[in-house]
Automatic annotation (TrEMBL), chains A, B:
GO BP term, example: response to stress
Keyword Transcription: yes
Keywords attached to this entry: DNA-binding, Transcription, Transcription regulation
SUPFAM superfamilies from the UniProt entry: Winged helix' DNA-binding domain
GO function term, MF aspect, one: DNA-binding transcription factor activity
Alphabetical list of Pfam families matching this protein: MarR_2
Signal peptide: none
Protein's UniProt name: MarR family transcriptional regulator
UniProt entry tagged with the keyword Transcription: yes
DNA sequence: GTCAAGAGTCTTGACGTCGAGACACATCGA
DNA sequence: TCGATGTGTCTCGACGTCAAGACTCTTGAC
């Protein structure tokens, strides 16, 4: 592992090491970076989506519908579990997406309590364009890795994330 | 890289692959996991801190003060840059931390516009306990990695995060 | 059939964050 | 000394999320 340049996390970890020499602070070298990376990604996404006039939360919902495949329909409950927000939040999101004409609510044919949320043609077009832009941005970020770095990183992350699947 | 078990991200990526065969969706294998990991970490932290009756945002601020070293004093502006929130948010946070007796505001001696936020003994005790708990939780999560996995993961993340330091 | 328990969706109020701008003071050049 | 510009902190209104609970309909046992 080359030493390139001291980054912000290195400084934070060094500070903790100095202040709490009784602790093993190595986990911070991983998790602080995960945190910061997630934050930066948020920003990158926001700017990527802004070109197509989409908000991050809109993409969250639309992309779940998009990757479900034709006819691009899911229940609010399914959207809740896929996007990891609460039901109240999802109701609010669907309301706003419906106002903007990106989805429509349909009554479920076989459960009268149920509702199905469906992508409109405009919603489909927007989410496809956003995904194209997003992948372009993300690919450029990963270009900093050496060959083999991408799958290695994915595999390591997968192992760690797997710890939470209980 | 062993194939262990298909995880949620694998399913998401496979779905995109099927729906958009024109795109290279490999970046998702990294960034989707970063996202999910960050979310899970949030939860893990919240429960770890709950034992010491601290909120995540409180720890954010208190830990910046703690690792600054004695006398555990920073300006609101410094706290803003370290915690990556806006100034309005920081004012609000300091207000609440002051009410709870975990920090105090002092006038800066050499800049009459300025303020210095200082950890109280109670704040110091709480943040130290929280850090101890947090590292225990994080270390256990990383135990899933093989030897050498931790530094490898940290190095890869560092390269990627470095892309944003502009 | 009927009733209890469960499932799916939506409503409500509280809360934390953001972004823009206000205000006080500092700094620097003329 | 004076004004212009920069810096540090705080105020305010809008917004999105959450948690808890209300409501409607379904399911299964009796």
């Amino acid at each position: 592992m080359d030493q390139q340049h001291e980054d912000e996390v290195d400084r934070i970890v060094a500070a903790w090491q100095r202040e709490r020499p009784d602790l093993d602070v190595e986990p911070l070298t991983v998790f602080s970076r995960v945190d910061r990376l997630a934050r930066h990604l948020d920003r990158a996404r926001r700017t990527a989506f802004a070109r197509g006039h989409l908000e991050t939360w809109e993409f969250d919902v639309l992309s779940a519908l998009r990757r479900a495949g034709e006819p691009y329909r899911l229940s609010p409950g399914a959207l809740v579990t896929q996007t990891l927000v609460t039901s109240g939040t999802m109701t609010n999101r669907i309301d706003r997406l419906e106002e903007r004409g990106l989805v429509v609510r349909r009554r479920s044919p076989d459960d009268r309590r149920g509702v199905l949320v469906e992508l409109t043609p405009d919603g489909l077009e927007r989410v496809d364009a956003a995904m194209t832009d997003l992948l372009a941005v993300e690919a450029r970020i990963l270009d900093a890795l050496e060959p083999g770095g991408r799958p290695a990183l994915a595999a390591l992350l997968r192992t760690v994330v797997g710890q939470f699947d209980d």
